[in-house]
């Protein structure tokens, strides 16, 4: 009998992953964030876990990195750019802009045919077993390109039935396609809804193209809003999970998004994702050129908090490119160009993918158990204090990134109720070829100056000094530990020092949300 025949299924799975050079922690090469709801609500709304949702819903979201904050520590998504045309114009979009360093919706490097897209999906799935979701999100609107979109879904579903299909649309054409969406087993649909009032809408949308005619102003916004809400009702009636994306545009729709939140909740949306406007003159968008600003970190959080009482909020969105590949927060699209895919040997192995999922489940259980233990301790404290901390991580829910290598920091709010993931802040790399970059350090401080501490796996003495001077404590004593457990343990000690009069908490400054990659803030 050979050794292989005597192996347990678990050992075989381990070997499969090893053959690919993978483990749960090694496959995760970049950022991740919070975990399941814990303490009732220890993370954002999309952090709801197995016990917080009906079984059939949990089954749909548990491996989807956008619909479950916990899942996004472990599972990746990929987008294929098969949908170039769009049927509306948004004032924050310019699809001509193409930069491999830019990470925002609408932007892609290569457009694909459905056949090329299906091949790319299989190639990525062969090499990245944690890729569980295929999304079509542009660079235009998937439903303004229905043949290419549905052909791609058809080809992928045939060859890779375990991959979830996901669609993101502006909603104008949605009511016409709900039946096809259902027939193609697309179980997750995102609609971008920025307004329900045409007076607000006319400031966001200069035109829509509907039934062979171009409409402008309030009339255009009214048509769009009616179609979006009708499409949402039709989808939820079919039990298709719907997420609503809304772009927060200060002075235009910020307060109005509370009304949008109520309207989509009453129509059965599962999740609301309020994202900051990305707007810079170099993007060439109307808002970029007219100087429309995006929200600050505190403005965004305040609005998300207001809406959270109404329904589940997503706070871990990374506003990905329409050809993004990898965990949210990482972009491996440059590894999978048409040219590179041609040389990849496709070996789509369901068993390896199952093995990865089994490892993830074990890892998830360990994390939850550790967090629950710490939560019991912190619940004994009696304090209303809330603080924010920043965490450097490359995934797996652990503090496992060096300060100088972090491209983003994850932000957690700590209180006696638990640790709650509230967002991420993108930054310039501090460590450039072995040297600390002073300008980059400035951007990091501006991005996390609302935090009391930053947790890292390692940090040099220069940045440590500068951060502490800016009132941000550096914490490297929890390197490679689970984030929530470490953060709560830190918070317990912080409270002890406050009670002993050793620390006097003061109001922190607001932080800046980065307006797109590689743009230096002034
Ligand atoms: Fe893509 Fe969107 Fe599906 Fe996710 S993204 S189509 S739901 S698989 Fe996710 Fe990216 Fe945010 Fe979108 S982080 S922009 S919410
Ligand atoms: Fe751009 Fe999407 Fe708006 Fe179309 S719907 S203009 S692709 S952001």
TrEMBL record:
Pathway: Cofactor biosynthesis; Fe-Mo cofactor biosynthesis. Residues 72-321 form the Radical SAM core domain. InterPro entries: Aldolase_TIM, Di-Nase_FeMo-co_biosynth, DiNase_FeMo-co_biosyn_sf, MoaA_NifB_PqqE_Fe-S-bd_CS, Nase_CF_NifB, NifB_C, rSAM, rSAM_sf. It holds the Pfam family Nitro_FeMo-Co. Gene3D superfamilies: Aldolase class I, Dinitrogenase iron-molybdenum cofactor biosynthesis domain. Signal peptide: none annotated. SUPFAM superfamilies: Nitrogenase accessory factor-like (SSF53146), Radical SAM enzymes (SSF102114). PROSITE patterns: MOAA_NIFB_PQQE, RADICAL_SAM. Keywords: 4Fe-4S, Iron, Iron-sulfur, Lyase, Metal-binding, Nitrogen fixation, S-adenosyl-L-methionine. PANTHER family: FEMO COFACTOR BIOSYNTHESIS PROTEIN NIFB (PTHR43787:SF13), FEMO COFACTOR BIOSYNTHESIS PROTEIN NIFB-RELATED (PTHR43787). NCBIfam families: nifB. GO terms for molecular function: 4 iron, 4 sulfur cluster binding; lyase activity; metal ion binding. This is FeMo cofactor biosynthesis protein NifB. Its cofactor is [4Fe-4S] cluster. Belongs to the radical SAM superfamily. NifB family. It comes from the Bacteria. The keyword Amino-acid biosynthesis does not apply. Involved in the biosynthesis of the iron-molybdenum cofactor (FeMo-co or M-cluster) found in the dinitrogenase enzyme of the nitrogenase complex in nitrogen-fixing microorganisms. NifB catalyzes the crucial step of radical SAM-dependent carbide insertion that occurs concomitant with the insertion of a 9th sulfur and the rearrangement/coupling of two [4Fe-4S] clusters into a [8Fe-9S-C] cluster, the precursor to the M-cluster.
